[in-house]
């Protein structure tokens, strides 16, 4: 008599895709990439259902298969029967890591570059928005008479960039846009493009500056060198990234021009900061910590 042995899903091994499922989930999140991950019945492979519009291939099995081949990823593509979406099956850690490197890493790099630029703009009190592309960023500055663009120019060493311009008129805004374009081109070392949308009674003027990722990094580095009007804001942001939200930076009521600040941390935040400063030191504060 022939006995049909039941199929038992194999446990995820170090070489299976399931072993690095968390790594893939983290990468998808960092890339802001919409997809669903399911572990296959064999317990080792991963099914990745693609929902994002940022895929490098069209929503078809043929295009996905060709992209996998071109990227050197050992995986297969199929169409889901319920959502009619492309589903990639990754079978090994190598296929997962190649998938991350080929599809997600460029978006992770772009989003990190945008976050760094946004941080330094915020430190300087500049209110702008950044649209993230795979290989470029679009920095949008929007306010009446492009006052934000004038402040940006001041930080880059051109304090009088808009002094002689009638910025209440379209002609003046166009001239300012040209000057800003040439200024930033000089700062980043290569030509940038700009686009102006003139405002009206209900809309502010809006300047869009297109930057490659390398140009954005150079602009960020230049702005990091500029003096911050309120250093406590930058310190507050950096502390928040290091110890978590809630760390408080205040300026004591001393004489004008004081360079003293008070940092207030709860016990857990103090422990995190201590560990960051000295990873080999195991310190658990017993109470809140205030330092000057």
Short description, anyone?
The protein has 292 residues and is α+β, with helices and mostly antiparallel strands. Helices cover 40% and strands 18% of the residues.
Number of helices: 8
Q: How much of the polypeptide forms β-strand, as a percent range?
A: 15-25%
Largest sheet: 4 strands, antiparallel
Counting copies of identical and different chains, the oligomeric state is single chain
Radius of gyration equals 26 Å
Please identify the structural class as seen in this structure.
Answer: alpha+beta
- Helical residue percent band: 40-55%
Helix/strand order, N-terminal first: HEEHEEHEEHHEEHHEEHE
N-to-C span: 82 Å
Unreliable stretches covering 5 or more consecutive residues: 1-10
Q: In what order do the strands lie side by side in the largest sheet?
A: 1-2-4-3
> What is the number of strand segments?
11
Gross morphology is: flat
Provide the residue-averaged pLDDT: 84
């Amino acid at each position: 008599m022939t006995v049909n042995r039941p199929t038992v899903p194999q446990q995820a091994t170090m070489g299976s895709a399931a072993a690095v499922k968390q790594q893939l989930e983290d990468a998808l999140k960092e890339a802001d990439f919409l997809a669903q991950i399911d572990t296959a019945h064999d317990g080792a492979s991963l099914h990745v259902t693609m929902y994002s519009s940022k895929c490098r291939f069209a929503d078809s099995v043929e295009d996905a298969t060709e992209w996998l081949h071109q990227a050197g990823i050992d995986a297969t593509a199929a169409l889901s029967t319920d959502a009619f979406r492309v589903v990639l099956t990754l079978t090994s850690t190598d296929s997962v890591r190649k998938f991350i490197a080929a599809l997600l890493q460029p978006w992770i790099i772009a989003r990190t570059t945008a976050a760094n630029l946004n941080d330094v703009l915020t430190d300087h009190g500049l209110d702008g928005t950044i649209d993230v592309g795979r290989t470029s960023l679009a920095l949008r500055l929007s306010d009446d008479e492009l006052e934000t663009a004038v402040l940006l120019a001041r930080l880059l060493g051109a304090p009088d960039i808009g002094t002689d311009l009638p910025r209440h008129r379209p002609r003046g805004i166009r001239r300012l846009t040209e000057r800003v374009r040439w200024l930033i081109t000089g700062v980043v070392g290569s030509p940038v493009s700009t686009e102006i949308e003139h405002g009206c009674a209900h809309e502010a003027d809006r300047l869009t500056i297109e930057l490659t990722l390398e140009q954005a990094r150079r602009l960020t580095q230049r702005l990091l060198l500029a003096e911050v009007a309120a250093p406590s804001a930058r310190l507050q942001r950096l502390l928040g990234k290091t110890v978590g939200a809630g760390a408080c930076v205040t300026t004591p009521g001393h004489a004008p021009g004081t360079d003293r600040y008070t940092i207030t941390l709860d016990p857990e935040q103090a422990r995190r900061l201590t560990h960051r400063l000295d990873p080999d030191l195991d310190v658990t504060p017993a109470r809140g910590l205030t330092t000057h």
